[in-house]
Amino acid sequence: MRVVWSNRALRSLADIQSHISIDSEEAAHRTVDRILKRGDQLAAFPQLGRVVTRYTQAGIRELVEAPYRIVYRVRGEAVEVIDVFHSAQLPPWER
Questions:
Q1: What is the rounded distance in angstroms from the CA atom of residue 93 to the CA atom of residue 95?
Q2: Tell me, what CATH number does 60's domain have?
Q3: Which domain holds residue 17?
Q4: Does the pTM exceed 0.85?
Q5: How far apart are CA 25 and CA 39, in angstroms?
């Protein structure tokens, strides 16, 4: 199974990196790398994350790479990462 990162998820990763790099470029790269590696685990284990019933669309799951939430869904032979955001925030579509 392959992992596909949506444009929204890629923009969120860029925002996360930008925000953290204000204090430390190295920490920003490490954080984004951890999130990407965690997301890549979904290729082998697509059911790894928990189902989130409060999201309006069925089949939405999330995987935590503290303090970030990786929101995704399985579509056919691909895992689509929908978005990534800090766990202290509401999902962007609920703000």
A1: 6
A2: 3.30.2310.20
A3: 2-94
A4: yes
A5: 21
